[in-house]
Amino acid sequence: MSKKQLIMESALELFAQQGFDATSVQQITEHAGISKGAFYLSFKSKDELINGLIDHFMLSLISDIDHVVKNHKASAELLYEFFQAAFHTFQKHSDFAKIFIKEQSKTPNEELISKIHQYDKLIDNIILGMLDRIYKDEISRTRYDIIYCVKGFIHTYSHLILFFDVPLDLHTLSRSLAEKTALLANHSETTFITEALYHTLNEPFHVHVTKEQLLEMVEQKIEEVEDSTLKESLDLLKQQMIEPSLSPAIVKGLILNLNNHPSCKQIAYLIQDCLKV
């Protein structure tokens, strides 16, 4: 385990017990058994650590549901696969999901609020793309209302599973919510969230990861991974971002290499978005 991973896991344990604000860098370093100097070699501050944890969780969720939506036929089964991927991610990262849900409702940190809204907008785009693929013009008036309904399903049922220890039958839950979403799409006539209102609500927030930031993330991931195939794939994709020379088929193959390894799925999503493949 790398020192950065050790810090993140130690911080997770303390954040779960005490929350973000009540946990100090000193407590994290003592819990991890490292010096403060070692902490600051990995993270500039506690806020950067928290942002790193949020990035890890949200990118895992987004890459999982985006992969399902882009690689599944536009049918009713796509809704089922979408919900299954979303709840599987919450289950896989249940420790941080609990902290994330608790803390985002009370944080006064504007940077953190902005980051959460940025990821929320990415999720909206994936859901909207999925709904348009399945229902096309049938939901032209209600599509934005349904986005909020789908996110409401995810939030409410995740809260139920994470905080009330309700046994998770992933198949039944996903099937149930897919059916409910289909009913809304096929039979809703009255809409509350109009297109104009939706864009007004989302106007202040702009999702943007610069190429320079992404290149830094790729460099860091190259240092973290041990598998030679992953290292080579990351290096070739880094060069492609700097000076394109590879065919789209080769780029897709390299991204697929990353997608097949859980630790690289998030960076694969960002690279794919940057290279538009």
From TrEMBL:
InterPro entries in the cross-refs: Homeodomain-like_sf (IPR009057), HTH-type_Tx_Regulator (IPR050624), HTH_TetR (IPR001647)
Stored PROSITE patterns: HTH_TETR_2 (PS50977)
DNA-binding region residue numbers: 24-43
Entry keyword Nucleotide-binding: no
Domain of life: Bacteria
Domain HTH tetR-type: 1-61
Record Pfam families: TetR_N
SUPFAM superfamilies in alphabetical order: Homeodomain-like
Record GO terms (molecular function): DNA binding
UniProt keyword list: DNA-binding
Protein name: Transcriptional regulator
